[in-house]
Amino acid sequence: MSENKTEISVEALRAGDREEFSRLVDTYSGPIYRLALKMLGIPTDAEDVLQNTFMKAFQHLKEFEGRSSLSTWLYRIASNEALMLLRKQRPEITFSDAAPEDDDNSDYSPVQFTDWCCLPEDEFLSSESQAALDRAVQHLPETQRIVFVLRDIEGLSIQETSQALNLSETAVKTRLLRARLRLREDLSTYYGKRLDKRSKE
Amino acid sequence: MSENEHSKCRSLLGSLSDYVDGSLGEELCEEIERHVAECQNCHIVVDTLRKTISLYHESAVEAGDVPGVVRERLFRTLNLDDYIRH
Predict the structure, then answer these.
(1) pTM for the whole thing?
(2) Inter-chain residue contact B52 with A58, CB threshold 8 Å
């Protein structure tokens, strides 16, 4: 998310300027809501995360030290809120990153080799296609999903993603690679079927 | 595909993310390009990986703003009622 357009003043925010806070909310609520929706998949849950993020941001503004950008700081709060809600909803799932962060990517070796890039553009723009993209993200383990959403959907750099998640850059890269490979497999299944269908028509 | 070639595909797997992001060193880049030129499967993996990332990126651009009612409830929750109409 771009901070250049509106130039939010951290000083004004700290001084309790309500109008400036409302500008902060309007600037960043879109990306935060989108992140929450991708993470949780349910609009009402995403709205909870959105509200909690800005409530916490308001409460903790004084602690914002400016070591990261305002947007990275907000992403950090939002990521924590989203992961916390997921953990609350499904306490049976362990989030301790069961998958080791070693260099062994053999479990992620590609198995599908259909070239679906040649599908016509309208195929990728359909609502069915969008739903398939969303489903595939929902299938990712949460710790990979949050990295993928921040880096590839929201467009944060590796460094910003690592700041937002308090993870090493190496861990971010490992999770990102695995998320991308897994999504590629899922999309290859979906678009491979579309390719078959088109060739039969 | 020979066993040798297959192990090459595997060894390059770890560098694919950096490669598609354009942040891989020149030497490894050339190694991947040489391999991909000869290995049809890896060629497809690189192309579809790029396409996967770009589809998600585009989906974010098209997602737009927070729905009006969600924005209004957010402003009320934050006691920013005075700024709902801006």
Answers:
(1) 0.91
(2) no
